[in-house]
Structure formats: structure tokens, C-alpha cells
Amino acid sequence: MVPTVRLTSEPVSREDVVAVARGGAHVVLDEAVLKNLATTRQHIDALADAPDPAYGISTGFGALAVRHIPEDRRIALQRSLIRSHAAGAGPAVEAEVVRALMFLRLRTLATGRTGIRPDTAKALTEMLNAGVIPVVHEFGSLGCSGDLAPLAAVALALMGEGEVFDVDGQRKPAADTGLTSVTLAEKEGLALTNGTDGMLGMLVLALADLHRLLDAADLTAAMSVEALLGTDRAFAADLQALRPHPGQALSARHMRVALAGSGIVASHRDCDRVQDAYSLRCAPQVHGAARDTVSHGELVADRELAAAIDNPVVLADGRVESNGNFHGAPIAYVLDFLAIPVADVASIAERRTDRMLDVARSNGLPAFVADDPGVDSGYMIAQYTQAAVVSELKRLAVPASVDSIPSSAMQEDHVSMGWSAARKLRRAVDGLTTVLAIELLTAARALDLRAPLRPAPVTGAARDIVRERVAGPGPDRHVAPDIAAAEELVRSGAILTAWEA
């Protein structure tokens, strides 16, 4: 049964966005929403009939807003706006991003602040529910005046123009989808394009991913601590309470739970080593700081999900006013912010992996956890892959939002670059997935090599999940498929079922 998300005048949740973008949930417009849209539209129609020019209704756009457009040219005005703004370039972005963008634009339309006609909102809903995905290109948004080119590509498909992917993923002309095309009326071109929906959608999706990845990072870190004969004493609750960051407390608790009952940890409880390396001992501090950054990102996302972004906007008293709420700075900053802990969590995971592979620091593991070191190289080059990805993540952590290139003949003289921040965060999330997958592979093999000592129930369960996809220690084999299998365990969250132990 296909799940349903009902759009009312109330804000949607992050879970709703993920359900529509990734889960294929159908969207239903509440009848009260449609009634409110019809009421609001009356204000736009009144302005269209008035002799005085109104931006986006009876004028041009951007730097061309000084021109008054006669009534017989206004349908052409809307059509030209969408055609000219659908100016993206580069590869098509992912279907889940486009679905999130479409849903979030529809959510703003449902607020009744944009002046859209009910039939146009229903047409966008129909396209979304039909699984038709307009082709939205990688480049074209500056994150100010909204995600103009990406949203224009969606509006173009609504008009029956441009290209789309159908429900089977086949690329075809929008005119061939069987959906009824829309002729846009006054203000509707702006209503469909003047929003921050693309960058917000990517933020919401990244937040969902990062919750899963940080849980995985706590698990792989615990496995590495165990594999390296480290101690769990540094993760004690009373020690963590001395620095009361909530994310740190949660990550430390995860690691305590993961290491509880470990025969490996118990075997060296009274050894003469005083403390572990930072990459082991400080994992809760690094992972926890990342969690708290995610919490800030959720605060920003939830505020944005309660917003109505358009320009001009229809206020409750019927006034139609120009504003700057389309500026993407609030989202752009947090997208850039999140890329920093993503890079650092990957960096500390790579350091733990390298320590397991180094015979001088691994406390008795064979070099590179190889079967016959010298003949076999084990995971030597897998760590190279980690290092390459971590290096890329450091570059992706450089903020996009500090840049601004003026556009529209200096009318739009400061832009957020929030779309670019979102795109690089998506790549960073993928990179962290790869880095954690390689730590997972390495730690699982190291735990095997500690036999007959037994790992903790949780870490042992994680090792067993890996073994369902990847064979245990032995002579070298093609490593890339093993990395891909581990990536899928991390990406899907399947490895997190180990917590059930």
C-alpha cells in the first residue's frame, strides 16, 4: 500500500519530505487548502485588473521589472519566464532530490501565500504522484531568488515542455507523459520558481542520512577500539558528564553498549597501557560534535519547513509585497557547516583504520590484516581509498556560501550559493559512507583475527552481518566488490541491526 502525505496549512515534517522523496509516498491536497488557494487567487486577479503595475503580475522580472506588460501579453510573459529560466546545464540530478524539490514547492503553494490557482497546484500534485520526474540539471541555481533554474525545469514540464523521466526511469519529452499541460496565469511563473526548495530538500535528505551514518560511525569506532585492544573506560558516563554536550553523551553511550560483554576488552583490562590514541579515546567527542551540528541543521530545516518562500508574497490581509525571503543564506550556511563534521568524522575513522593496518601500532594484528603479509597485501590499498576520499572531503568542507557572483544586471547583487553547498554536501555524505564501510571491513577482519577471544554481542553481530556479504580472512581477492557490499550495509542502515544484539 502506497503511503500518503496530506498537505494542510500546517508545516510538514522532515519525515514527510523523506517519505515523498525516497519512499514514493503520494501527496493529497486538503480541501481546505484548495479553498484557501481560490480565495488568495482573487487578490492576484484584482491586481492583474488594476491599472497600476504589480511585480510579477503585470511587469517583467528581475532587472526587467521596470516594464509594464499589457494584459494580452501576460500569458506569454509567464511562458517566457519559465522557458528562459529553465537554463540549467550539466548532468541530471537525482530523482529523490527532484521529488523533494517538487513536494516542498507544493507545500509552499499550499500555504496560500503565493497566489497560485488551485488547478495549477493540483497539476503539480498529479505529476508528483504519477512518478514523473522533470530533468533538473546540476548547474543553474545561485541559491537566491530561490532555486530558479531547477524549479523552472519543473514548471516547464508542467507546461508540457522540456524532458522528464517517467515512472520507469525512461527519459522522454514532457508532452509524452499523458499528463495535462498547464497554461500559467499571472504570477504563477514566480510562484512555481521563487523558492529555496531544492537546497532545503537536499538538507533534509542529508540530515536523515547523517543520523544513520553517525550511528554507524559509533559502531565501527567501537569495533576498532575492540580490535586494537583498547579500553572502554574512557567512555564511562561520569567522565562524559564532565563535558555535557548531548551528542557526545549519546555517542559515548552507543560505544559503551557496543562494547558491553566483550571478551576481547576483558582480556586486557589490567594491562600496563594507560590510555589509547586520540582516534579511539576521543571518538565520542568528535562524533558527538557532529551530532550536535546535525541538531542545529534540524532546527534550521524545521524553521524552513514552516516558511512560505515567494516573491512577491500574498499576506493574510490581501497585500502583495516584495520581500527577500527567497535568499538562501539560512540554509546555505548550515549546509556548509555540516560538511565540516562530515569530513572530520571520516578523518578520525581513517586514522583508526590505518592504526589497525600498521603492525607497529595494531597490538599484534598481522600487517595490513593480510593472510600472508608480503605475499598478500590485505587492506593496504583500501586505506589508500579511504585517504583519497578523506582528502576530497576536506575540499568539500570549504564553504560555498562565502562566495557571491552578482547576477541579473546587478539587481540580484548578492546570492547565497546554497544549491552549490547542498550539492557538495551530498557528495560528502557519499564519501563518509565509503570511509565508514572500509573501517567496517577492516575492524570485522581484525575481530576475526583476535579469535579465540570473543567480541561483544553487538560488535560480534556487526561482524556477522558483514560476513553474510563478505568472506572472512584469507588470501587476497578483489577488494572493490567487498567495499561496495560494505557501503550498502552502511548506506541502507542494515549494519545498524547489530544494535539489536
Automatic annotation (TrEMBL):
Catalysis: reaction(s): L-histidine = trans-urocanate + NH4(+)
CDD domains tied to this protein: PAL-HAL (cd00332)
Ranges in coiled-coil conformation: none
Class of the enzyme per the UniProt entry, highest EC level: lyase
Superkingdom of this protein's organism: Bacteria
Protein family: Belongs to the PAL/histidase family.
Identification of the protein by name: Histidine ammonia-lyase
UniProt organism field: Amycolatopsis acididurans
Phylogenetic lineage: Bacteria, Bacillati, Actinomycetota, Actinomycetes, Pseudonocardiales
